[in-house]
Amino acid sequence: MTRTASSTGRTALYGILALAAVVAVALFAPTQGYYLNIMMQAATYAIAVAGVVIVLGYCGQLALCQAAFLGLGAYCVALGTVDYGLPFFVALALGVVVTSIGGIFLGLATLRLGGHYLAMVTIGFQMIVTMVLTNWISFTRGPDGISGVERPVLGPIDLSGGSSYLALCLAFLVGVTFYAAGLKASRLGRAMQAVRDNEIAASTCGINVFRTKTVAFGISAALGGLGGGLFAGAFSYISPDQFTFNESIVLLTMALLGGVQSPVGALLGTILLVLLPEWLRFLRQAYLAVYGAAVIAIMIFLPRGVWGLVADRFFKAAPIEGGPVTPLPLLSRKGEASKEIVLDISGLAKHFGGLKALDGVDMAVRKGSVHALIGPNGSGKTTMVNVITGLYVATAGRVKLLGRDVTALAPHERAKLGMCRTYQNIRVFRGLTVLENVTIGAERDGNDVAGAQATRERALAALDFVGLRDVAGLPVGDLPYGHQRYVEIARALAGSPEILLLDEPAAGLNLTEKGEMAALLKRLKGHGLTIVIIDHDMKLIEQVADHITVLNFGKRIADGEPRAVLAHPEVIAAYLGEPRNEAA
Ligand SMILES: Nc1ncnc2c1ncn2[C@@H]1O[C@H](COP(=O)(O)OP(=O)(O)OP(=O)(O)O)[C@@H](O)[C@H]1O
């Protein structure tokens, strides 16, 4: 609570300082000339660069077309005010709407494409916009561009003067910077960062990956359009060569240089890259080479940008406060193992080409039971969990969760119904803190928690349960391997799962850690959680399992109460590699 109050106080202080800066600019900035132009360019570009921060820094999508959105915004304002007589702010809003639609349209491509291919699509988009602006002469006036873009007058407030228009641009910039900073700490921002760090884990935590990327593209493009619209008013003349692929690279460099994961960093990067050429002009012919070398040097020596350096020095994350935690509500359910079937699987098959990784498997998991899924390496256990959670589409068969057929649902839709999991190869969100990782689990749609404070408390309670409350504020990558496994479990627990699927939770742990993991699993079992567990450690399985299903070559070879199953000759043969004793 204290932390929240102090961070609110800090935000208010920054807000007042920013407002004072805007007023000072309105009163004292030059009304025309070289420095005014530099400041106009920095302010309008910085708004577009904040868009790069959101799509690339937060969401991890490399889009190389921010200048196209800058151009679309600028042309909306220029054409809207000059040719169609629209009021400035109406044209500006139109630009934001047009570019956000363009961004969403581009985001739709992420359904099928990612990485390099997506980057290529964005370059294609940039090229198309440049070509349209250049060649659709009857509408855009082609290479001649549009001049005479007027600045706004709002009733008695005249914003057409140099300093007052700059103050307007700065006011927008301040708003955008606060918005982007707030977004990062919001549920949507966390979802974006989860998608950036690990799409698969994000989807099984209940995040709609496709929608999140599309929204990130939309917001980013809207900020490009806003910056572009203000740019048109700032210089009163625009032409297609101001919004080319080269400019997109400049905007990207600004974000990377300043620190692509921080809006303040992007602001610094923009100022630096607008000023650097001016500072270096005295070098004449050598200027471009020195400019390029300076940019490369900053990139190499400051991989997290200039802001990374500043933040490490001066802005340490506040420690997470101690104090009492409310216990996890799911642990008070005290569910006794019952006959009710939580997960009902029938005839499940998954074929990879000719390989039948799963071949008609049946399995029923009872409420409150610990159900082990075992089998030799390559027998299909992980494939089974992947098909159950929706990461793989089943070739045949049916998966029912609490009586509902979920076979056709996407992973995030299954998570919404209470299906949570961990991974054999740990999948935590590396760019986030331990608490943020677990908060994402608590934020799953369908969870019984509402409001930011309650969600945070739920996440802290889950961390408390696995014994990691003290390290909640640390970056998750700073934790040892074994503890990262606990973070995954806490992330799943924070979502109050109806069923928890643990894929080899003890894999890669040393003996002591395995003992601790066994103790944790027993505690979970004691609270009546419904669990499916895969593990090769038979000692662990014997300690916790109520029921065992055994797979071999994708087929179920045994199913039932642990003692009988483990004594089954076919199971022994599968594990020890002995020939089957048909008589037995
Ligand atoms: N995405 C995939 N594409 C092709 N084949 C796959 C894929 N995933 C799994 N397989 C194959 O399916 C079979 C079952 O693999 P799976 O990982 O499910 O086994 P497992 O029982 O979990 O093994 P382990 O105990 O070693 O983790 C293996 O032959 C594996 O190579």
Tell me what you see in this structure.
With 584 residues, this protein is α/β, with parallel strands linked by helices. Among the domains are: 13-245, no CATH class; 338-418 and 536-576, P-loop containing nucleotide triphosphate hydrolases (Rossmann fold). It has 23 helices and 14 strands. It has helices spanning 2-28, 34-58, 66-83, 88-108, 115-135, 137-140, 162-184, 187-197, 199-204, 209-235, 245-258, 263-279, 287-301, 305-314, 381-389, 411-416, 434-442, 452-466, 481-494, 511-526, 538-544, 562-566, 569-576; strands at 146-147, 153-154, 157-158, 237-238, 341-352, 355-366, 370-374, 396-401, 404-405, 419-421, 499-503, 531-534, 547-552, 555-560. It has a six-stranded mixed sheet, sandwiched between helices. The protein has a four-stranded antiparallel sheet with strand order 6-5-8-9, with helices on one face. Helix 20 links the parallel strand 11 (499-503) and strand 12 (531-534). The longest helix is centred in the N-terminal third of the chain and has 27 residues, at 2-28. It is elongated, with a radius of gyration of 28 Å. The model is unreliable at 579-584 (pLDDT under 50). The structure holds adenosine-5'-triphosphate (ATP). Residues 352, 355, 357, 375, 377-383, 424 line the site of adenosine-5'-triphosphate.
Beta-strand content bin = 5-15%
Radius of gyration based on Cα positions = 28 Å
* Tally of helical segments: 23
Profile the largest sheet.
Answer: 6 strands, mixed
**Class computed from helices, strands and strand pairing:** alpha/beta
Report helical residue fraction. 55-70%
Q: State the strand order across the main sheet.
A: 10-11-12-7-13-14
Low-confidence stretches: 579-584
Number of strands: 14
Ends distance: 65 Å
Q: Which hetero ligands occur in this complex?
A: adenosine-5'-triphosphate
| Mean pLDDT over all positions | 87
Envelope shape? elongated
